[in-house]
Amino acid sequence: MANLKKVLAGSLSLCLAASMFTACGSTDSSSTSDKNGGSTSKAGDGTGINKDADRVNTAELHGVDSSEDSKKTLTIYCWNTEFKSRLDKYYPQGTSNELTYNELADGSKEIATINGVKLNWVQVENEGNAYQTKLDEALKGQQDSTEKVDMFLMEADYALKYANGDVALSIQDLGITDDDMSQMYQYTKDVATDTKTGELKGVSWQATPGLFLYNTKIAEDVLGTSDPEKVQEAVKDWDTFTATAQKMADKGYKMVSGFDDTYRCFSNNMSSPWVTDNKITVDPQIKAWADQTKEYTDKGYNNKTSLWDDAWAAGQKIDGGVFGYFFSTWGIPFTLLPNTVDEEIKADGSNAKEGNGGYGLWKACSGPQAYYWGGTWICGAIDSDNQDIVADIMKVMTCNKDVAKAITEGEQDYTNNKAAIKELIDGGYTNAFLGGQDHLALLTEAADKISLENKLSAYDQGCNEKFQGAMKDYFLGTVDSYEAALENFKKNITDLYGNLTCDF
């Protein structure tokens, strides 16, 4: 067995050297669910092939032996503190492992050790792909290092880069079963499924369906109502949405803030991936976004802002003059809430009430198309020397119904557990920030409609960013036509990914 492990480790090192982090190959196959909630790989000829029969056990792929210090340290790569805060607060509710804590200055506690293994958080800010660059370096040297990465986080836009590579442990090799994951949304599994082997390589504690969040004061002024069902009628499809945008403009309001606001609604509803067989195509949904955004810019339906800039955020004030924003679950507490209040919400929640800026004055409706945006996936690193702890964290944080329910109640996450969400809805859940609305029911409707079959590629992040960047010049008139902007996109994307060609 020891010799076998050495052979497997050598093979893995060759794979890493040959293919790791060169955008990880094309996605000419897609993952689909089998009847048991597992996954099979769908080959390019459309024939479903289950490769379980000849797969290797990723948990047995070992390189250089770990140091004693590495064995006693759980090293986790991340880009912010979101998952750490969830782990510190909710993991203790679902684990039987022995924990010790450090007390923080604000009186809260963080997990110091799990079964005597100390936690080492490596946080790299996700600016200019700095996080991926640092993670790539660590994972590329994993087999030859005595200091091991145990766990890392990834986002949907680049998930296949890691799922299709040779750096993440298969969930089944960690002992997490289809039954454990039976309450997860299938699309959250598809995001992290290796399209070559059908193996699931990451799990998420959250699902991130999106809604249209609207300013109730503007709704009352223009539409004569702020009732979610009636507002939905005014934004139920894109033709109606555009007609309402003209009504908003007639009264001096902007329908959306900027160029990027509607993008995810279109990009999540593509009929084919950005890249197939190393060829880039522009899906009709992406072209439709560009056409719509140009029209909205020319007619004054938006403020010509870009995602995350100061002017974009300013529109979220209750008197900011922007009717609505498309946000998925995380966008409500992390972005809209802090941007709309006048006074930062206190730890005790005493000022979380109407009268504090726009608190309680926003509501949600489904909008013109179901979509999702973002999310974070937890991956175990191949050759981790603490796989038992990695598996327990994944199982507790993503499969435990009571933990999922607590996270939704405490953090406003829409957790990736259908049973937990249903219990909350049946129990009369309301969101005070949204004026007492039960938006979980709307999110559930949206989540049930999300399908990512044949829509993902390992190049999604670069394609999305470069296309939006090129089109911004078109919207602003810096280039005089869509075709000219498309040529700029073609140059920029092939400069970024030298192995790709453009099929347009």
UniProtKB/TrEMBL annotation:
Record field: compositional bias (Polar residues): 26-42
Secretion signal: which residues? 1-25
- According to the record, the residues making up region (Disordered) are 26-54
The protein's name: ABC transporter extracellular-binding protein
PROSITE patterns, per this entry?
A: PROKAR_LIPOPROTEIN
Keywords annotated in UniProt: Signal
